[in-house]
Design goal:
The chain is mainly alpha-helical. It is about 85% helix and about 0% strand. Helix 1 packs across helix 7 and helix 10 runs parallel beside helix 14.
Length: about 375
């Protein structure tokens, strides 16, 4: 949750940096995207390392690197330092997320086989929600808005370091650590039908999340005239908060049913938000965001729950790394394109096209799930 909160904390700050330093929406989404470049590179290189060297050493390194990123944010005085801070943060988060996911599966108690999948689904999106609204509140009401949030996160990451120091190791060392650093993005043949079946819903949900975390506050300010920074943070919190509550509420439901609900609510909620933008109605756009958030949380629960269930102990961090690479590519590339498009064609046109793209992808996910169920019956 702390790593995810730190990832979303800069979102309400983007408009502050943009006003102070005078850069375009293209630069804004570039700052957002370099974080994901660092994260994906980290997942590709370090994704399987904890299966060989143990979970604690990699988590400790990720925490130390995250602390460096927070210091860079605090001293940042221009776009260049901000870009470096985001890259360092991305590398730390990629190392942490794949390792934390595998650690949770290692610690999963036999009497509650779905608990690791639930925590893997709920914790990250809960962190995104808390980080965005917390930073939005600090920017609006507290002094030194571009410094205080990272000072608080630095204290939090120090506490996380103490936790890791006392945590038991959950994965025995085994040979092959150096070889594991060679990026190989693959999954065992026996797992491919299950994994490929959830890729469309991962793409649809994380593409929507990328739009909200990169341009959400800009949409609120530019299209609806909502310049309050707390509201800018709430834009992300509506999506991610609804997602976290949904993932927890549906934790005992069958995965197939959750996937159906996720695809339907993602497409329907995004369409409602689009209607709110076109009608210039804040309440309708907010309602659509909450409905889409149901799909966002449901897809996280179903996808990470499936991975936690099917992965063998030696495959856990590598398989989670694969899923996270797909998720963060969907998270970043469309958002980067949206930043360029909003500079070139305007924020309204970009939001319309992006929303329609998410609706179409969610419908593809619905069709893919229906086809997969038909093959299983046959």
């Amino acid at each position: 949750m702390l790593f995810a909160a730190a990832a979303s904390a800069p979102t309400p700050l983007y408009v502050v940096y943009q006003k102070e330093w005078g850069f375009t929406d293209t630069t804004l989404t570039g700052i957002f995207a370099v974080y994901v470049v660092g994260l994906i590179g980290s997942l590709l290189v370090l994704g399987a390392l904890s299966d060989h060297v143990g979970r604690r050493p990699l988590l400790a390194a990720a925490i130390a690197l995250e602390a460096v990123a927070f210091v860079l944010f605090i001293i940042a005085g221009d776009v260049t330092v901000l870009l470096v801070a985001r890259v360092v943060q991305g590398i730390a988060t990629g190392a942490a997320f794949s390792t934390l996911g595998a650690t949770l599966v290692d610690l999963n108690p036999p009497h509650a086989p779905g608990r690791a999948g639930l925590v893997n689904g709920v914790a990250p999106i809960s962190g995104l929600a808390l980080g965005s609204v917390g930073c939005g509140a600090l920017v609006q009401f507290a002094p030194a808005p571009t410094h205080l949030v990272f000072a608080l996160l630095l204290v939090g990451i120090g506490f996380a370091g103490l936790v890791i120091a006392r945590m038991p190791e959950t994965s025995a060392r085994r040979p092959g650590a150096v070889a594991s650093l060679i990026p190989i993005l693959g999954i065992p043949a026996r797992l491919r039908p299950d994994v490929f079946g959830i890729v469309p819903i991962i793409v649809a949900s994380w593409a929507l999340g990328g739009l909200y975390l990169s341009l959400g506050p800009s949409v609120a300010a530019g299209l609806f005239g909502l310049h309050n920074h707390l509201i800018g943070g709430l834009v992300v919190t509506l999506l991610c908060g609804a997602g976290a509550l949904t993932a927890f509420a549906l934790r005992a439901w069958p995965t197939d049913r959750i996937l159906w609900i996720s695809a339907i609510t993602l497409s329907g909620g995004t369409a409602l938000t689009f209607a709110g933008v076109e009608a210039h109605t804040v309440a309708l756009a907010a309602a659509g965001t909450v409905v889409a958030g149901v799909g966002f949380g449901g897809s996280a629960l179903a996808s990470f729950g499936t991975l936690a269930r099917i992965a063998a102990p030696g495959e856990r961090s590598e398989l989670l790394a694969f899923a996270l690479v797909i998720a963060y590519l969907a998270f970043s590339l469309p958002a980067l394109a949206a930043g360029y498009a909003s500079t070139r064609f305007g924020l309204h046109a970009t939001t319309v096209v992006y929303s329609l793209g998410v609706v179409a992808t969610a419908l593809i996910a619905l069709a893919a799930h229906a086809m997969r169920r038909s093959r299983v019956r046959l």
